[in-house]
Amino acid sequence: MNTPRQEIEARVAQGVSKLFSPVPPAPYVRPCPDSRHGDFQTNVALIQGKESKANPRDLAAQLAEVLELDGVAEKPEIAGPGFLNFRLTPEYLARQVTQRWGDARLGVPTVAQPETVVVDYSSPNIAKEMHVGHLRSTVLGDSLARLYCFLGHHVIADNHLGDWGTGFGMILFGYKREGDPEKLKRDPFAHLEAIYQKVQREAKTDETVREAARSELVLLQQGDAKNRKLWEEFLKYSLAALDVIYQRLGVQFDYTLGESSYNDALPGVVADLLERGIARESEGAIAIFSDGTLPPKDDPFLVSEKEGYRDNPLLVRKSDGGYNYATTDLATIRYRHEKFHAQRVLYVVGGPQQMHFRQLFSAARRWGYNDVKLEHVWFGTILGADKKPFRSREGETVKFRALLDEAEDRAGKIISEKRPELSDNERATLARVVGLGALKYADLAQNRNIDYVFSWEKLLAFDGNTAPYLQNAYVRIRAIFRKAGLEKIPEASVQLTEPAELALSRKLLDFADSVLMAAEEYRPHYLCLYLFELATLFHKFYEACPVIQAEEATRNSRLILCDLTARTLRQGLNLLGIDVVEQM
Ligand code: ARG
């Protein structure tokens, strides 16, 4: 099933190859910037005109003559210096809407060549409680996993937990001194974080504390039985607490292979890097330096300074024999390549780690991993109203659990006002779907590379580009069917006459494009924007075109538009990890 854009593109390509030589490079067609002029536009005559020194308007006219558009679009109009504008015909739109309606995938094709795609996301450091910073990685990663899966790829969701770093030295030291097994069981995050913070504070001024924490870590990494056992306890309870959060969010992982899983592989990785001459010794440590193959300004192992370039090595073993974050990541690449046969790995991790990943990917390529696409899908920071990183009123980082609680609380209050008659149970369910949906959507609707200002009022608003607005549009459509007393739509043919019907139909056909674009650029906000525009056009349609009151043929045709809109909203939201409800 071609999308309208693909359909026009194919026809223009055909005409171009008949008429122009050499054939200018595709693609030729893009959506019309102003829908009053048409649905799609090509500037290929302008490009060819420049190339062959011919009058572009003449070329456009010749192209218009040879194009075979048979019923897909009206005869194109020549505009401006030599554009061609295309308007899809109502018959074509009606046919396409009917096809989408009969298709469980709503016109979204599966890929011709499925890949094995590892999505590395959420990945919190569990010495500390999950906080607001983990929201973005968790919801973005979840949405990307869903998108790639929907497109037919083989997706492996892997939570690369920070369960092995320096934090654990401090925790072990502190826990041995003042740990409480009861508290650990009851609220592992809070207990471990309290210990961690206390030791961290002491370590700032007290060298002996620093030293003690370091030796606890060394003991752990060398396999000391007591430390190992304690660490296993920490991990067990922390994982259970994490699970509660992920379940609440509807986020699932295929694997939780934390940093600790790679511990035994690290000496071998470093030995191999040394043997192949990729890493070398430097001041007692082992590191990867520039190999001089890249222009200095693109070389992640160099940084520019006033006097020129300075080395910016990637450490893989510290002088005290400990291993680094990067060493684990290299071991992880090897593992994912060998065990999962990964063809693509998406690292959904914040912007501050851009340098780490540039170095890591470059090191991996030098190490021979050239047949796996490595992508750092980075994101910006969530800001408070003061444009500084979002914090609680007390000035602390906002805990993940508190964030979810507040989302549900606030949604619950709004729902109580709108629907006082609901039972507590019904309200709680709605509050969860609406509150958590709103929270996720607020994040996904932003271009991920941009820092955004967090606002409860905005994200829970029932109008605007929000989850509640989309969920509400879905609910409204379901209400139409309930009112009509219909569960199944009578067989009918789609007929489109009203401008609002045509506009809604055109939008309905763009669903596949928005999904493909969101996946390709790892930017779910394209899909959000699409769904928002779809819901808006639906409301316009619903205001302009009576459905239930219309005479039968029109009513049934419009019911098809309603149903396809509802299914598209539901599927689109599902790809964002957001649920719908039947009533709200
Ligand atoms: N635990 C890390 C952090 O919180 C993120 C890990 C991301 N994944 C990776 N393979 N490095 O910063």
Walkthrough of the structure:
By secondary structure, the protein is of the alpha/beta class. Among the domains are: 4-88, Gyrase A, domain 2, CATH 3.30.1360.70; 167-251, no CATH class; 467-575, Isoleucyl-tRNA Synthetase, Domain 1, CATH 1.10.730.10. It is built from 21 helices and 15 strands. It has helices at 4-19, 44-52, 56-66, 90-101, 133-150, 167-178, 181-186, 188-205, 207-222, 225-249, 266-275, 325-340, 354-366, 400-418, 424-444, 456-460, 467-483, 499-508, 511-520, 525-544, 552-575, and strands at 29-31, 40-42, 77-79, 83-86, 116-120, 154-158, 279-282, 285-288, 302-305, 308-311, 314-317, 344-347, 373-376, 382-383, 452-453. The strands form five sheets. A four-stranded antiparallel sheet has the order 1-2-4-3. The longest helix has 25 residues, at 225-249. The protein starts with a helix and ends in a 9-residue tail after the last helix. The mean pLDDT is 94. Arginine binds next to helix 12.
Supply database-style keywords.
alpha/beta; 584 residues; four-stranded parallel sheet; globular; binds arginine; four-stranded antiparallel sheet; Isoleucyl-tRNA Synthetase, Domain 1; 21 helices; 9% strand; 53% helix; Gyrase A, domain 2
